[in-house]
Amino acid sequence: MSTHCNTLQHTATHCATLQHTATHCNTLQRTATHCSTLQHTATHCNTLQQTATHFNALQHTATDCNTMQHTVIHYRTLQHTSAHCSTLQHTAAYCNTLQHTEHTATHCNTLQHTAAHFNTILCTAAHFSTLQHTAANCNTL
Which of 65, 73, 68 is nearest to 81 (CA)? Predict the structure, then answer.
């Protein structure tokens, strides 16, 4: 009977060891699962950090784009204003020329009047030439 008791005690000890080992394995499995979750979380954090960095770069780029758009609009306005200024300067120079030459308008009017008078003389001469030709024909008859 003592051998049987020894065997039972040995078996009980072995069972206790197995139970302890099983508990330890369960703890290790839970730890492994927790580590896997932490690794996944760490990967997710790295992705979020990269996304945040990318987002900051995009915000900076967007700010630069807005600044450039504003600059382009300002540049176009300045070009438009410059064109107006050039036109105004040209007009002012023309006005100055006209003001400095007070007789220009009078001279132009005189030239126009003379040209009209000359056209009248040319028409009269042509008419006179026709009349002479007609008179010559009449004399021939």
Answer: 73
**Is the distance from CB of 98 to CB of 104 less than 8 angstroms?**
yes
Exposure of 1 in the CB half-sphere (CA atoms within 13 A): 0
The values of phi and psi at residue 102, to 5°, are -65, -30
pLDDT at 53: 92
104 Cβ contact list (under 8 Å, min separation 6) = 97, 98
Q: Inform me whether the pLDDT recorded for 104 exceeds 70.
A: no
The amino acid occupying position 69 is: Q
Cα 117 to Cα 83: distance, rounded to the nearest angstrom: 43
- Specify the DSSP element, H or E, that contains 100: helix 2-100
Helix (H) or strand (E) holding 132: helix 103-140
Q: Please state the length of the chain.
A: 141
Question: What are 61's two structure tokens?
Answer: 């780029």
Say whether pTM exceeds 0.85: no
Residue 99: pLDDT above 80? Answer: no
Rounded to an integer, what distance in angstroms lies between the CA atom of residue 95 and that of residue 100? 8
Residue type for position 72? V
